[in-house]
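Below: protein 1.
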Amino acid sequence: VSYLGVTCAPVLFLLYALVVDRNAWVRSRWKYLLFIAPVLFVLAVWTNDLHREFWTSVIMIKGSYLAMFRHGNIFWIFTAYSYAMLACGFFFILRASLEQPVFYRPRNILMLVGAFLPAMGNIIYLSGVNPIPGLDWTPLCFSISGLILLQTIRSHALFDVAPLARAQILD
């Protein structure tokens, strides 16, 4: 069940970035096609015992509660898809930061930092430079990211409709 969130998070981040960028594509019906791959990845996770293409094996580390996962082809395709969605999201938020009034820049930068942290935790986990083999740093980085995003929402009135209304009137 947790992979529902894991597979959809990069797509949702991209859709958020498209909203920040005021990109017309976010209002298109085509955006729903971005969710086809996450659904297929979740199905691959649920049926992994049949094909072993998401995880090829799991090895428990002696003396700990950690496990080493050997990843299969579908996992690496999922990882590439996820990082492509994140990269596109980073691009749209960066572009919005440069094109929108300076007032929005701190909010956008904090949102980028909040999205970047889990990606870095995941890269550490997957790259082989993990200081604690078997420990996935991604959930810890998501927790730190959540605190950053909460502070961003509170301090920058992220869901305040007044700036949006003003932008719609002036545009």
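Below: protein 2.
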Amino acid sequence: LSVITSGPIPPNPAELLGSRRFGEVLATLAAHFDHVIIDGAPQATELAASGIKAATFVVIPVEASEFSVWAAEDMVELVKQRIEITDGALQAAFLINKQVENTRLAGNIADKLATYELPVLQSRLCFRQAYAACVESGQSVLDTEPGSKAALEVTQMAAELVRIHAKRVAA
């Protein structure tokens, strides 16, 4: 698993994602890697719309709270529209994020997310300081804390996404 962090945020990220140069970067990455994951904001913004257009699989992060489920509605609508436009070529799933360990709230949230008719990943990212520290440093937990629970969660999520993709390719 290789990770390229964004570095400084450009003045207009949506313009960057829609640019010819970004398309070239994606093509180069796709030629060298089996899977390319672009991590973006969970809100339905112009930046998210540009990312979704470039994607073959969208992971919608949702915090383990009722408010986050409600806030995901616009993103779900945007993703479903793109799924329809691409005749189902785009895949999507929810990822429960910032789960508090050893609580049942994530299970309740998963049930509520099921009403959106998109799958919910079995992988969960728990509420951990390691993730916040990575944002500050511009690195991944795989770089900063490779043996941590956070790194294990990210690795498990990546493995689950690869399994989902493999099933689709085999179908």
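The longest strand covers residues 91-99.
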